């Protein structure tokens, strides 16, 4: 352990991509940090980075520990210990190691990893009486952790009261007037002004659930942008750099977002090895760690439609089937390429911009509805205006658009009417109604040119399903009653009254069950 004369404020365990940067961020905000990783080289690297970045007039604020007992004895009580280790078994591994090292009942362990929310619920109960297991899901990647992430804390409110000042200091900040991020990436000079992107989400598991849905939306938003890229490159024959320029232009309009910004950047990057566009040298097989899948599974389990999020997970799965795709590309016929005039191409690009905006609204509507339905099942009181607010900066899905979502929920709160679906908010219903024809034309062109658009297309089906007062589920109920006597309700009788037609009898009489 490094020399220190005083007890430290907070411990960080796990110094990978996120933990290392969180430790530096916390230190930038004047807290003294004890740091530990199983790999001593990572502790050393962190200490060196702090030394390199620290302004000359600042004292050392991070101290390395060689084991957890040393960390516990270096911290002021009750202790705050931040876990930034991979989700799953490593979280319990560290908790058990902390128990062996002498962690106490009043100490707080904050899990900042992408843990499955049901694991978090179980852990809070499992460690009760031993220490306070608190969770704080985090988004923002490496740079977010370093200079201001979005933080989604949940669990024991007393634990939140203790960590809140640190969390508000290290979180990303938003200008309250414009709703735009205040960004300054300067070691030793953290952003202290503006609204912090953190808020208490709810009981144990709520923060991880909200982060999981954030990631589900992230999957869908990324896939929507990728579909637009394929339409512009394969469909229109534009180069990666040209698509990058279009995305950069869109990023200055209603599609302004971090994901659009980085997509434009990725597309304009040349490969250092070949000089070709880097994107064309990257293998088209998408990885995933599970949070998008968990979101889709949750939506299926609770019966909340989130088709665009599910399609984004399937799109990653299809991408990994490279061998089959190679074989089938030689076997299966597709349409002739579309030949478009210059005017038609320009029109198509504008239509696609509107299609993307509409699909994005539908995808966020799905995510927010999912959070609402799960909250209802769990008895959580989620404040969606606050959730949208803390996603305006710091996190991967940060976008100007989140300010409109914040305002839509604030308006609903003001008039005392719950916003059951974001499509109902005036700002979005007007935009969707105005742009839906362009959305259809973009999907139609994609279909006619043979470019797959599972997310842009499924979002349109979601939109059309929700604007249909009547769906063909009447026939479906008839089918179910026919083969399985599963019964149906009638439109001219009380809700809940069940009927069955004796389909196999010659008279086909109707029974009230
Ligand atoms: N990367 C990202 O953009 C984001 C990640 N997250 C989540 O944050 C968590 C951390 O992610 P990330 O930093 O990317 O992961 P990394 O794999 O980069 O870092 C995890 C670190 O934890 C260390 N570790 C593992 N087990 C222990 C242990 N028992 N005691 C001490 N240290 C341990 C690892 O050491 P070693 O390598 O030696 O095993 C490694 O240094 C994950 O749950 C991730 O899903 C959340 C938001 C964004
Ligand atoms: O949580 C995150 C950002 O919010 C991570 O970047 C996310 O885990 C990446 O997920 P995947 O590897 O599944 O694409």
TrEMBL record:
Substrate binds at residues 114, 139-141, 214-215, 219, 289, 316, 480, 486. It comes from the Bacteria. It is an enzyme of class 1 (oxidoreductase). Pathway: Carbohydrate degradation; pentose phosphate pathway; D-ribulose 5-phosphate from D-glucose 6-phosphate (oxidative stage): step 3/3. One of its GO terms (biological process) is D-gluconate metabolic process. InterPro entries: 6-PGluconate_DH-like_C_sf, 6PGD_dom2, 6PGDH_C, 6PGDH_Gnd/GntZ, 6PGDH_NADP-bd, 6PGdom_BS, NAD(P)-bd_dom_sf, Pgluconate_DH. Residues 207-504 form the 6-phosphogluconate dehydrogenase C-terminal domain. Its EC number is 1.1.1.44. The keyword NADP applies. Keywords: Gluconate utilization, NADP, Oxidoreductase, Pentose shunt. One of its GO terms (molecular function) is phosphogluconate dehydrogenase (decarboxylating) activity. The keyword Oxidoreductase applies. Belongs to the 6-phosphogluconate dehydrogenase family. Homodimer. This is 6-phosphogluconate dehydrogenase, decarboxylating. It comes from Shewanella insulae. The gene is gndA.
């Amino acid at each position: 352990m490094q020399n220190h004369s005083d007890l430290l404020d907070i411990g960080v365990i796990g110094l990978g991509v996120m933990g290392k940067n969180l430790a530096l961020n916390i230190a930038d905000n004047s807290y003294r940090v004890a740091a530990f990783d199983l790999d001593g080289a990572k502790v050393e690297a962190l200490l060196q980075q702090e030394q390199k970045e620290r302004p000359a007039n600042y004292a050392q604020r991070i101290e390395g520990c060689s084991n957890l007992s040393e960390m516990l004895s270096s911290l002021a009580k009750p202790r705050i210990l931040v876990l930034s280790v991979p989700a799953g078994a490593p979280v319990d591994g560290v908790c058990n190691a902390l128990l062996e090292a002498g962690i106490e009942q009043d100490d707080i362990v904050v899990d900042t990893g992408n843990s499955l929310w049901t694991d978090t619920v179980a852990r809070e109960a499992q460690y009760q009486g031993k220490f306070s297991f608190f969770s704080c899901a985090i988004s923002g990647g490496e740079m977010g952790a370093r200079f201001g992430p979005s933080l989604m804390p949940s669990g024991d409110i007393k634990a939140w009261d203790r960590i809140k000042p640190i969390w508000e200091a290290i979180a990303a900040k938003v200008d309250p007037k414009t709703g735009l991020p205040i960004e300054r990436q300067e070691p030793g000079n953290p952003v202290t002004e503006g609204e912090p992107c953190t808020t208490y989400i709810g009981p144990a598991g709520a923060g991880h659930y909200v982060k999981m849905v954030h990631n589900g939306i992230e999957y869908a938003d990324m896939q929507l942008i990728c579909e637009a890229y394929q339409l512009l490159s394969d469909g229109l024959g534009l180069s990666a750099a040209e698509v990058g320029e279009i995305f950069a232009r869109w990023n200055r309009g209603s599609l302004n977002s971090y994901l659009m910004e980085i997509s434009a950047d990725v597309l304009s990057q040349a490969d250092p090895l070949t000089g070709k566009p880097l994107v064309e040298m990257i293998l088209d097989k998408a990885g995933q760690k599970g949070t998008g899948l968990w979101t889709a599974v949750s939506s299926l389990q609770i019966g909340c439609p989130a088709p665009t999020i599910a399609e984004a997970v399937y799109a990653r799965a299809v991408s990994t089937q490279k061998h089959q795709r190679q074989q089938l590309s030689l076997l299966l016929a597709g349409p002739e390429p579309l030949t478009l005039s210059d005017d038609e191409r320009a029109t198509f690009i504008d239509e696609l911009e509107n299609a993307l905006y509409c699909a994005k609204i539908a995808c966020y509507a799905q995510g927010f509805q999912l959070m609402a339905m799960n909250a209802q099942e769990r008895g959580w009181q989620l404040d969606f205006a606050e959730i949208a607010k803390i996603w305006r900066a710091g996190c991967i899905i940060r976008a100007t658009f989140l300010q409109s979502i914040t305002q839509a929920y604030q308006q609903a709160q003001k008039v005392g009417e719950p916003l059951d679906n974001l499509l109902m908010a005036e700002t979005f219903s007007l935009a969707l109604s105005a742009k839906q024809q362009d959305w259809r034309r973009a999907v139609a062109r994609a279909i006619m040119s043979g470019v797959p658009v599972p997310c842009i297309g499924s979002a349109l089906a979601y939109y059309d399903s929700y604007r249909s007062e009547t769906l063909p589920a009447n026939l479906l109920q008839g089918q179910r009653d026919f083969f399985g006597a599963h019964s149906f309700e009638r439109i001219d009788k009380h809700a809940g009254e069940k009927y069955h037609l004796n389909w196999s009898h010659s008279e086909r009489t109707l029974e009230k069950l």
